[in-house]
Carbohydrate sulfotransferase (Dinoponera quadriceps), 386 residues
Amino acid sequence: MLHTSYKKSMMDSPETTVRNDDEKPMIYPSKLAPYHFTRMLFSSMQRQVTALQLIALLTIICVTLLILAQNSGEKPHTGTNIEPAAAREQTSPRHAWSVARVASEIIPRVTMSRDQMEHARRELNARKRWLSSACRAIGSKKSHLDAALTNMIVDTEHNVSWCPIYKVASSTWMSYFAVLKGILTDAAMDRVRHDHIQLNEIVRQKFMRVEDLNRTHEKVMKTKKFLIVRHPLERLLSAYRDKLEHMEGREYYYKRFGRRIAFKYRLSGNETRLEPTFEEFLRFIVKEKFFDEHWAPYDRTCGPCAVRYDYILKFETLDRDENFFVQDANLGGYLYEKNYVRNINPHGTTTKEILSEYIKKIPRPLLDEINQIYENDYKLFDYSFV
């Protein structure tokens, strides 16, 4: 009866009832009900906000895990404009623009047939035999092995080593090694084009040699070693035409060599010319025997009698020789036919025909002295004296 009347009083009374710690009912006036309602509403909103924050946090974590899982399945991007064909589709979106920009310039190298490969192999093997025989005949007391190892670019990842000889496709192959190392980026090429740095400096920085030449020699001997050569006098003329014949754009070489050569070896009749002539350049070499890397003899630069090179490529048959070497050394997935950086003389490439025109003005005794200085280069690589 009491219970019934209590329920009825609660329903009839506009008051709010709560219990204290002793479980005794406490009656609050109805005017406090809005306050407690507001507190309940605010508490509910806090719980909702907390739940939303938790959902947002879980969403961020899930998205992050998905991105990490996707990236872990991709090959790391090398930053190169040219990649192996198998990896090109896996390029990260961050670098997709630079790869797509040059895609139209990439042309796969022509695959040589088995007969073509064998014909080229026979000729290159004959060059090695000739070199070995010439080395025995010369019997040079100086092997120049240390100079060769210091000059060598060793790529153990792709199992190739190259001894650069400047003015013999060196710019092209610096580009190739930049591709192999993954450093032929847009940023690097912009620096090269604006003359902030030379490509060979970038390549040599990345292919840092070991200070211990014995260790370098061990690494080199485990790789496929190659060098590229050219008719010695044609190379000399190419160096002259590129570095000394015209001062414009070559101020460095004019200040370092050209001005002094013209002053010391100036011939009558050339008084109005600032740059040295080809004859004056040859006289400078004969008299001073000072060799810049662009006209230093091959045997002093790459030690062909000290290093057993596996491939001897020649400038005269370079297209065929390069295709053979790239295919035989399994580099076809990396090196494509493309407009790589080349040091092309704006006045034209030096050819045998151009050489013939220049040497018409050179006295025979001077040519004989030049031939004597570069005699080993002629003999080692089977070139005829001019």
Observations:
- Residues 1-35, 71-106 have pLDDT under 50 and may be disordered.
